[in-house]
Amino acid sequence: MTEKLELLEEHRVFDGTQRKYRHHSETLHCAMTFSLFLPNVEKFPNPSLIWWLSGLTCTDDNFTHKAGAQKKAAELGLALIMPDTSPRGEMVADDADWDLGQGAGFYVNATQQPWDANYQMYDYIVTELTTIVRETLGLTGSESIMGHSMGGHGALVIGLRNPDRFHAISAFSPIVNPSDVPWGMKAFDAYLGADKQAWASWDASKLLASHDGKPVPILLDQGTADNFLHVQLQPENLIEPEGYPLKIRMQDGYDHSYYFIASFIDEHLEFHKTYL
Fold first, then answer.
1. Among all residues, which ones are annotated catalytic?
2. CB-based burial of residue 2 (10 Å sphere; 0-12 exposed, 13-18 middle, 19+ buried)?
3. Under DSSP, is residue 265 helix (H, G, I), strand (E, B) or coil?
4. What pLDDT does 101 receive?
């Protein structure tokens, strides 16, 4: 697998290294890029790994360039991996709308044509990219997961569906109940079909409400000035079982942007470090 992984960029930053890779995905049937931050490997030879999942229209570059996470990650000895948000390319199905198709994979495994040919983002992250991370890049430390907006939805779903793997989950402005908000309903109807029963296993609000296994600590930050708060995000729909370790913080005056993420990313990394 090593020969299939192409290093596109490498930058020294905060006593660590920021990299960008490209590879051909057997799961998505297209070329994919992902970014990786590694702390000083002499100080932290087998660092814990946090997965970051980005939101609609984003690539693996948005968090890398805008969140300012590398300084705190270097200090705490944390590796960060940032996958792309969807399959890409001329042969990959797309849509004219920005909230469907390329840049809007929603971290599900599509079952409907034409999306099912490429849009298997859950399997890509949980299996294929994980294998690359472990076997090719040698990162075998403990893991947690976080994300923003559509990626917050992805982090919650992947973390809740894999409680024995991910030690903690955090999210900024996540779509917590995609089955009942416009962004999610549009994507789920296209990718998963009209049967809403098939949507439940991809909906964090439903996964958490029915959760009876190992609890995964969750931190959720939501800005009160977020234009999408009341229609698309609705954090009040994330209702945990009694005693579940979930903390929702409403942050006054913050919006949906990366300025919000940059303001609290250090606290999220410290939260993850506690459980890693």
1. 149, 226, 256
2. exposed
3. helix
4. 97
